[in-house]
Write a structure and sequence with these properties.
Organism (chain A): Rhizobium herbae
CATH architecture of chain B: Orthogonal Bundle
Largest interface: A-B, 32 and 21 residues
Oligomer: heterodimer
Number of helices of chain A: 13
Number of strands of chain B: 0
Number of strands of chain A: 15
Number of domains of chain B: 1
CATH topology of chain B: MetI-like fold
Shape of chain A: elongated
CATH class of the largest domain in chain A: Alpha Beta
Helix content of chain A: 25-40%
Helix content of chain B: over 70%
CATH topology of the largest domain in chain A: Rossmann fold
Distance between the termini of chain A: 41 Å
Radius of gyration of chain A: 24 Å
Structural class of chain B: mainly alpha
Family (chain A): Belongs to the ABC transporter superfamily.
Strand order of the largest sheet of chain A: 6-7-8-3-9-10
Distance between the termini of chain B: 49 Å
Number of helices of chain B: 9
CATH superfamily of chain B: MetI-like
Strand content of chain B: under 5%
Structural class of chain A: alpha/beta
Largest sheet of chain A: 6 strands, mixed
GO molecular function (chain A): ATP binding
Pfam family, one (chain A): NIL
Shape of chain B: elongated
CATH class of chain B: Mainly Alpha
Protein name (chain A): D-methionine transport system ATP-binding protein
Chain lengths: 358, 217
């Protein structure tokens, strides 16, 4: 597992756990959907669970409010074990958990305010009080003018805002987001994610979201857990997992948003020899803040050429990934460059030799 | 057409309306809960009970497979028990209602089954119980289909009520058979058919308008 994980786990000790899962298993027929998942979500944090479709993330999130029952293991919500509870016993518990869905799941026969007020109706609140609270929430999500409208007249983004307002109306301790932005265009996705982040900050609401998009995790989550074939394969603060993805699945999921060696270069790489050695250089956190390349060219003049890369900032931490080419005329140079970079806290990997570069 | 024939026509129209409306309302009141029961006890339903579902399904199929004219006669003892007589308009309402109830239950079942599962999940996730799901999700979301299905049932009942003439229930269908068909009074036949067309179109038009008003999807 990630080296950053242990540090953050220690730092997080003593914080209240809203959700904790221990070795949760669930199978559908012969295929395990969850194969021993252990996980905690701490109060006030946003945990992103990412995985490909079919990795078990939907089953996982649905187990948390009992929409799906686990076969074995323990699921604690606010300290209470919910495994094995009957539908009736789960009902009061579910009122502590809000949920938003990929396809919004708004009731088409009800107006926007009736949708938002429904959890309160279930709680047994009077009509005047319900509508007052619904108005507050519609204000929070910026849809006060749509209170009397029907969902069919709203855009996708507006529908999800109503979904969020509805999920929050009964003042839940936890918000579950089941691919809430997957049916939305990129711009709307950003605005919905900004709203979730805003709610998390304003209300201190704990959020667990599942997604197949790294971009979603990148922009809102504090921590990320990567799920594959029903197991959590990697877990840690988002910036550290982005900086140093260990599992193959994580690397592949990150492929789209992390700098990659351009295709035409990687295609012509030779594993054995060539005029230039191609290296990947990864740095994150404090290590990425120094004037690394300036220092390198001072220490070893003409020792490298920048091929590709960039610096991203995740959770206020710089995460840098560069590809450099080191000439091999002087056969000791590559080794010296690598040693210099490693001494400065960078992770260096030899990708091969570029034979064609003049 | 003579004034007597005209009076007969109006009386028959009234009998048809009475039979259709009364048996229609009974089939709605009994068929909708039956349709709901078929959906909620079915596979993946919110109150899954396979044995009850099979039992209800068999019962519905049983009644639906008996031809109406046979049901009409077979139910005479029951009709006599409920209405006190086996003849006349009121007596016809019993077999009509009993035939229409399983018919309508199946139509309602189809609409209820089409309600998006995600909506049920959403209300379950809010902590809603089964009753909440039925009241807030299943019925309101399926309402356009429930109403459209009721329109279909009413129109079917108008057709079926023609056979109720066999037990002296009267009605437009009976008038058409006895005067228009058996006595070759073409004018009566044409008049009855025109009245029936107007009646069916009127019910359909009203039903469609109501559905359009209810449908928010």
């Amino acid at each position: 597992m990630n080296s950053f994980v242990s540090a953050s786990t220690i730092a997080g000790e003593g914080l209240e756990e809203v959700v904790s899962l221990a070795n949760v298993k669930r199978r559908f027929g012969a295929t395990p959907a969850l194969d021993g998942v252990s996980l905690t979500v701490r109060k006030g944090e946003i945990l992103g669970i990412i995985g490909r479709s079919g990795a078990g993330k939907s089953t996982l999130i649905r187990c948390l409010n009992g929409l799906e029952q686990a076969d074995s293991g323990e699921i604690h919500i606010e300290g209470r074990n919910i495994t094995g509870l009957t539908e009736k016993e789960l009902q009061p518990l579910r009122r502590r958990i809000g949920m938003i869905f990929q396809h919004f799941n708004l009731l088409s026969a009800k107006t926007v305010e009736e949708n938002v007020a429904l959890p309160l109706k279930i709680e047994g609140l009077g009509k005047a009080e319900r509508l007052k609270r619904a108005a507050e929430l519609l204000d929070l999500v910026g849809l006060s003018d749509k209170a009397k409208a029907y969902p069919s007249s709203l855009s996708g983004g507006q529908k999800q805002r109503v979904g969020i307002a509805r999920a929050l109306s009964a003042r839940p301790a936890l918000l579950l987001s089941d691919e809430a932005t997957s049916a939305l265009d990129p711009e709307t996705t950003r605005s919905i994610l900004a709203l979730l982040k805003d709610i998390n900050r304003k209300l201190g609401l704990t959020i667990l979201l599942i997604t197949h998009e790294m971009e979603v995790v990148r922009s809102v989550a504090d921590r990320v857990a990567v799920i594959d074939a029903g197991r959590i394969v990697e877990e840690g603060p988002v910036w550290s997992v982005f900086a140093d993805p260990r599992a193959a699945i994580t690397q592949s999921l990150l492929g789209g948003i992390r700098p990659q060696l351009p295709e035409y270069i990687s295609a012509r790489l030779s594993p054995i020899s060539g005029p230039e050695q191609i290296l990947s250089v990864d740095m994150a956190g404090p290590a990425a803040q120094g004037a690394l390349f300036a220092d390198l060219s001072q220490a070893l003049p003409h020792s490298f050429r920048l091929v590709h890369g960039g610096i991203d900032h995740i959770q206020d931490q710089p995460v840098a990934r560069f590809f450099i080419a080191v000439p091999t005329r002087d056969s000791t140079l590559p080794e010296k460059v690598q040693q210099f970079l490693k001494a400065r806290g960078a992770r260096v990997e030899v990708l091969g030799y570029d034979a064609d570069h003049a | 057409m003579t004034p007597i024939m005209l009076e007969l026509l109006f009386r028959s129209l009234w009998e048809t309306i009475l039979m259709t409306a009364a048996s229609g309302i009974i089939s709605l009141v009994a068929g909708l809960p039956l349709g709901l029961a078929l959906v909620v006890t079915g596979r993946g339903g919110i109150a899954e009970k396979p044995w009850l579902n099979s039992l209800l399904g068999a019962l519905v199929n049983g009644f639906r497979s008996v031809p109406f004219i046979i049901l009409l006669v077979a139910l005479i003892p029951l009709t006599r028990l409920i209405v006190g007589t086996a003849l006349g308009t009121w007596a016809a309402i019993v077999p009509l209602a009993i035939a229409a109830t399983p018919y309508y239950a199946r139509i309602a079942e189809v609409s209820l089954r089409e309600v998006d599962r995600g909506l049920i999940d959403a209300v379950r996730a809010m902590g809603g119980n089964r009753w909440t799901i039925i009241r807030e999700v299943l019925v309101p979301e399926a309402l356009p289909g429930i109403v459209a299905g009721f329109t279909v049932t009413l129109v079917t009942l108008i057709g079926a009520s023609a056979m109720a003439g066999a037990i002296g229930a009267g009605g437009l269908g009976d008038l058409a058979i006895r005067y228009g068909y058996q006595r070759f009074e073409t004018t009566v036949m044409i008049a009855v058919v025109i009245v029936l067309i107007i009646l069916v179109c009127g019910i359909q038009w009203f039903g469609d308008r109501l559905v359009a008003k209810l449908d928010r999807r």
